[in-house]
Amino acid sequence: MQLTVSEFKKIYIATLKAISGRELEDTSALERYNALGDVLKDYIGQLLANTNKAYHDTGAKQVYYFSMEFLTGKFLPKNLTYLSIYDAVQEGLADLGISLEDLTEVEVDQGLGNGGLGRLAACFLDSMSSLSIPGHGCGIRYKNGLFEQRIIDGYQVEFPDRWLVNNNVWEYKRPNKAVEVHFNGYIETYYEEDKLKFKHLGYDAVRAVPYDTPILGYENNTVNTLRLWSAEEVEDVFDFDKFSRGNYLSAFEKKHSAEIITQILYPNDAYDEGKVLRLKQEYFFVSAGIQSIFSTYRKLNVPIEKFPDYVAIHINDTHPALAIPELMRILIDEEGLSWEDAWRITTSTISYTNHTILSEALEKWPYFMLNGLLPRIMMIIEEINKRFLEQLRLAYHYTDEQRLHDMAIIADGLVKMAHLAIVGSHSVNGVAKLHTEILKNQELKNFYQIYPSKFNNKTNGIMHRHWLLNANPGLTQLIEETIGDGFKKNPIVLRDLLKYREDAAFRESLFDIKLHNKEQLAKFIYEKQGIKVDPYSIFDMHAKRIHEYKRQHLNVLHIMYLYNQLKDNPNLDLPPRTFVFAGKSAPSYYVAKQIIKLINTVADVVNNDKSIRNKLKVVFLPNYGVSLASRMIPAADVSEQISTASKEASGTGNMKFMMNGAVTLATLDGANVEIKNEVGENNIVLFGLKVEEVYEYYRNGHYNAYEVYNSSPELKRVVDQLVNGFFPVSKEEFLPIADRLLRFNDEFFILKDFADYCDAQARIGQSYRDQASWLKMSLANIACSGVFSADYTIDKYASGIWGISRKPLDYKL
To answer: Which of 127, 194, 387, 556 has a CB 3.0–4.6 Å from the CB of 790, allowing a cystine?
Structure first.
């Protein structure tokens, strides 16, 4: 869009006065931020209305991407960039004595996700809009997010993430689009005109109110929607009689019972109450979302039988798998279709992405819980299961009862949501080539054998416009000056940078940019934690959800090993290193929380030991999210991607670090395999067991953690230090970690991979000392990262799964 500096200032001042009732000099930073948001929303709103009208008028097929998480990050810098008015607004604000950077700091990350799942969903929405693909997100408007992570005495402590305390300037509340979602009650069956009918009675109703956030496309005037649902009481009134009699809490009981559904992401499911709340959340947004889709579809005035020609529904992992029986419910109970017609429409409409092979993450709900909370949905799932097993017996001639039991959707009192998602969809995709092969040949082999055409791979991708253009403006400018700006819309063009590997001046510029980013992060670390780190040291980053299979404790054991070496020989010639950790543990995951405590305990010891002469520093940055990642990733020299081979589905952090010039230290797991194939083995540092070796240990049971532990004095020393009083904590503090490594036989092969990991780290130290060689490795990673843009991934989803084409818009502001 076109906007001059003078035009902007005039509009901005008028808007600021209108929302605050004050002169500029008397306004707060929050008021100035909200005014800027309102100015942008006026333009974006016009584009949103035009986009929706174009979709309706052309009858465009649209995809609805259902996900429990959407980690969007900040909208202000993104929207300014995508509208092509960043410079004009920055200059106009500066004329008024306002810093755009300060206003950007006012905005908080939206508390709508935890990690890779949510960030991937947000990246996909961005790519849909930027590619002019009609696609929208559907999720939950969590009032208090996952949690705000604070570190107190080295421990993770969870606090509410009150991201909505100052409201959200970017969203539109749509109370006129609210729908009802029904829980509990019972089902009455009856016949009407010789057709079996179902009526849900005695239910508890909750009002689902949508909040729409516009998702702007990059310089193309397309605006799609992220629709988030908030739970309210249907009548939104309190019990006046109870209130009058002094029963103040019970007077609001029904209101609070409804609103609790959308209070936080992933309530603790260690107890039945938490499980019920999670199940409520999953059905709540699925039911509301599909009801909303039908409302839009009916306006097209086309037969219900053509539903899959106009609508695609994609479920991001198993959390939204109840979309399958919910769509069946609406088609049968409300649209009056036969089971067969409803099933054809459902399976033609819904597609499913599997994100994990970890059994703990493949959702299974107790039958009694689902039956009590969602009686009609459970009836439909039972019928799906019955017909599926009949198909296996009759069409595929399966007679092995154990195999039928293993494939059943309902078995052993549990409803298996991954099985439901596979049976009820037309496409099942993995998120990296290795992951998809594991699904087909190991974890979901039984299903692949009967549905080979359903299974396909769509390797994850990242939003290069954020992780490069926005997060690393210095690098972006250097690239643009060197190869032009074509990479902004076609990031595969980054490969042209390979021509400059032998250009010493270019490498020097690359070094200067990385050093500047490291200096900025060092300043941030000192301001937040009081820890001084050396920007010339190796910045080694391990930023991801804390989990045993992601093996943060392998990293820590190596740091302890380096520390022991320095204590034994203070004059050891070791390249200075700064190890930076970030990530949250699930509140109920005790061992993961102990790993956080271990990181911080090691940090306290290492950072305060003057005898090692600052050769090692350890930092844990709390409350990892998009904004913190945007500070860390451009400053990284080394990207830790060290999960146990076969456990990580894909990863996207690996791609973000790569795009910013970090060298990947990796096992051959997830998308690391594809990164290796892109950059070549000379530009990645590999170690550890291979997938086939891990599975062989699982099959033969020959792995013995004690043998590995006793065979290496260095390894034995660091493991013993966990429990022998070496650290200034109780000897029992880290016993759970030591027990997982030894007594429970090291499920994730920390000990087995330790020596190889230490060797890989030594190779990194040697390579880093040769600056020219290291910068060539860094450059190769940047140049080869474009293939991992989410734009290419979404293009493959659109053509290969959803059957959706691009709809470029001519409209201009």
So the answer is: 127
Are the C-beta atoms of residues 617 and 640 closer than 8 Å to each other?
A: no
Q: Report angle CA 528, 620, 742 to the nearest 5 degrees.
A: 165
Whether 656 is catalytic is yes
DSSP structure string for 488-527? GT-GGGGGGGGGGTT-HHHHHHHHHHHHHHHHHHHHHHHH
Helix, coil or strand: residue 441: helix
> Is 664 tagged catalytic?
no
Strands 427-430 and 414-416: unpaired
pLDDT of residue 354: 97
- Which of 573, 548, 566 has its CA nearest to residue 607? 566
pLDDT (0 to 100) of residue 812: 67
Q: What is the three-class DSSP state of 461?
A: coil
Distances (CA, A) of 356 to 137, 315, 321, 347, 461: 21, 14, 15, 22, 16
Query: Is 269 a residue whose pLDDT tops 90?
Result: no
Which one of 355, 435, 454, 593 is the catalytic residue? 355
Mean pLDDT, rounded, for 701-718: 98
pLDDT at 248: 65
How large is the average pLDDT for residues 203-216? Answer: 98
Residue 82, CB half-sphere, CA atoms under 13 Å: how many?
Answer: 26
Whether pLDDT at 274 is above 90 = yes
Give CA–CA dist 537/515, Å, rounded: 10
- How far is Cα 494 from Cα 473, in angstroms, rounded to an integer? 15
- Give the Cα separation of 293 and 273 in Å (integer): 30
- Cα separation of the two ends of the chain: 6
Q: Cα torsion at 117, 118, 123, 128 (round to 10°)?
A: 90
**Whether residue 78 lies in the annotated active site:** no
The residue from 278, 550, 593, 740 that is catalytic is: 550
Read off the tokens for 785: 């990262």
Q: Is 652 a catalytic site residue?
A: yes
Specify the amino acid at residue 340.
E
User: Does 355 participate in catalysis according to the annotation?
Assistant: yes
Please report the pLDDT score of residue 811 as a whole number: 66
- 347, 356, 578, 652: the catalytic one is 652
Summarize the confidence of residues 766-792 as an average pLDDT.
98
Place of tokens 């006065």: 17
What is the per-residue pLDDT across 334-365, written as a single tens digit (0 to 9) for each? 999 999 999 999 999 999 999 988 777 789 99
Out of 177, 182, 544, 584, pick the active-site residue: 544
Active site residue 545: yes
- In the chain, how long is the greatest CA-to-CA distance? 91
Please give the C-alpha separations between residue 534 and each of 438, 466, 521, 538, 608, in angstroms, as whole numbers.
42, 27, 10, 9, 15
Rg value, the chain, Cα: 27
- Spatial contact of 176 and 138, defined as CB atoms under 8 Å apart: no
How many Cα atoms are found within 13 Å in the side-chain-facing hemisphere of 788?
Answer: 33
CB atoms within 10 A of CB 488: 18
SS3 content of the chain, % helix, strand, coil (to 5): 55, 15, 30
Catalytic hit among 143, 454, 466, 656: 656
